[in-house]
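Problem 3 from the worked examples.
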Amino acid sequence: MAQKGCGWEHKFRGCGYRVTIPRQAVLDKLSCSSKHLCAEDIYISIHKKYPGVGLTTVYRTLDLLINMGLVHRFDFGDGKTRYELTEGKNKEHHHHLVCTECGRIVDYNDFVDEELEFLKRAETNLSKKHKFNIKSHQIHFYGLCNSCSKGK
């Protein structure tokens, strides 16, 4: 199971929780996927192996994982809330490119110096302007992927 390498058991205990089978199953599914999964995707996948785990349990587990800081929640405008782990393999800070035609979501993390400088300057200016201590940010760019652009 994936918890050993990621230290999830320690994080759960530190927050006063146990690593239950449903929690482990949700974490395993998220850690094995390169996609941005919705709760229904997770439920369908883990329900095969754990038929006692219901959709409500998946939603409650995701809410707990978000509150613990282990999972990010995203709304890409397609009517589905999607989730991904905050840490682990290939989970460094990234932004998203979302195709409004086919729904493809691209993780964007190969920042060039100018982009990093722009983001840092924007965070600094927004913090000063609004007297707000920014801890994190999420940026989603919406448009057409290459395949959909060619079809238009």
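Problem 4, a separate protein:
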Amino acid sequence: MIPDQYFHGENSVEKRELLPGVFARLIWGEKIMMGTIDINPDTEVPKHSHPHEQCGRVLEGAAWFYVGDDEQLLVTGDHYVIPGDVEHRVVATENGCVVLDIWSPIREDYIKDDVGFFKME
């Protein structure tokens, strides 16, 4: 499932809506995926977990990160690590935020045509 392109311009990567108010531009290889995630002001990425390891950096703005039993307001320049299978959620502040997320292995659910990332059971 490796893309046939090695280099990507800022605007050449498709912008996909993960859920209302949350947009991603994703690139990936065989074992790793990276994306810039734009979260609109006061928007929540609901509590969820996945087997993928995830780490990232806040590029702009600020958001509350809730990981396991911990919570922290992260601002531009802050980093985070989320182990696989640990519940987490994110709530952007009134100015919204942009984060750089990295996952391993790749999130195949993020690159399917029928994007349904947070279908609640």
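Solution to problem 4. The domain at 22-110 is CATH 2.60.120.10 (Jelly Rolls). The mean pLDDT is 90.
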